[in-house]
Design brief:
Layout lengths: L1 H17 L8 H22 L1 H33 L12
Amino acid sequence: MIIILSLLFGGMALGLLSSRCRYTLSVDRVISLIVLLLLFTFGLSIGEDRHVLSELPGLGLSAVFISSATILGSLLVSLLISRLPGRKKERRQR
């Protein structure tokens, strides 16, 4: 846990320092690349495990339900937060 927190705070410090530089690496591209790499390695680990592969059809329906409920819940909470009193509605100008 200490390693994880150290990496988090180290990244925050580096981000703070690099925000003052004119030429910085595009963090969005790096994050996207890392997420894709993590998804690839996750797929590799699932593909290597025969037990997980054999259970995958049975898990499919539950996975669809859980992911759908998560998306729906996120949308509902976002809608509720956007309607809180005191929040200004911003309109885009074209």
